[in-house]
Design goal:
Layout lengths: L1 H21 L5 H7 L2 E12 L3 E13 L5 E7 H6 L10 E6 L17 E6 L5 E4 L13 H4 L6 H9 L4 E2 H16 L5
Helix pairs in contact: 2-6
């Protein structure tokens, strides 16, 4: 009996640790550094296979990773259910930050919902990008004066000062591109 109780405690501790790691806060620089693939696109299809949920996206613009017209995301069913990984629907427009695929071909968004930005139009028709946390703390610990000098990226600067809020889609895409260039140069953005 003691063996079962001990096994249960160990299992609970491991699961609690894994769940905590799955939702660790990541800023935009961390998303860019950890992602193997970053793109803007639309979910074209959703398929269930034996152990995987398979999402195919039509890529409008690749920001990191090999150039492609289509990006396929394979998430293990059990991992996606346990870790609250986001799901996608056909026609959904997103900017995704994806981990490099595992040896078995599975991947997930970096920071789960933190690495999934829904693209939508606001009331004035402006296209915006927002993750599941409302972009909360997305710029924490980043040198925004260096990244957005002067009048560059006014919407980004406003969001960073407020600590959250929708980002202008075009500005967001340009900031990601700039961050990736800085990281590739070995600079600390």
């Amino acid at each position: 009996m003691k063996r079962y109780i001990l096994a249960g405690i160990i299992f609970w501790a491991l699961c609690s640790h894994a769940r905590g790691a799955a939702v660790r806060e990541v800023n935009l620089e961390g998303l860019c550094r950890s992602a193997g693939v970053i793109f803007w696109g639309v979910c074209a299809s959703v398929e269930t296979q034996d152990e995987a949920l398979v999402y195919r996206f039509t890529a409008h613009r690749m920001l990191k990773g090999a150039s492609a017209d289509t990006v396929t995301l394979r998430m293990h069913k059990a991992a996606s259910m346990y870790a609250r990984a986001p799901g996608f629907a056909e026609g959904q427009e997103v900017v995704l930050f994806l981990h490099p695929p595992s040896d078995r071909g599975y991947s997930s968004p970096v920071g789960f919902g933190q690495g999934v930005f829904m693209i939508a139009s606001n009331g004035s028709g402006e296209r915006t990008a927002v993750n599941e946390r409302g972009n909360s703390r997305l710029f924490t610990g980043m040198n925004m004066e260096k990244l957005c000098p002067g009048a560059a990226f006014p919407g980004i600067r406003q969001c960073s000062l407020a600590g959250s809020g929708a980002l202008r889609h075009q500005e967001f895409m340009e900031l990601i591109r700039k961050l990736i260039m800085e990281i590739d140069r070995g600079a600390r953005p």
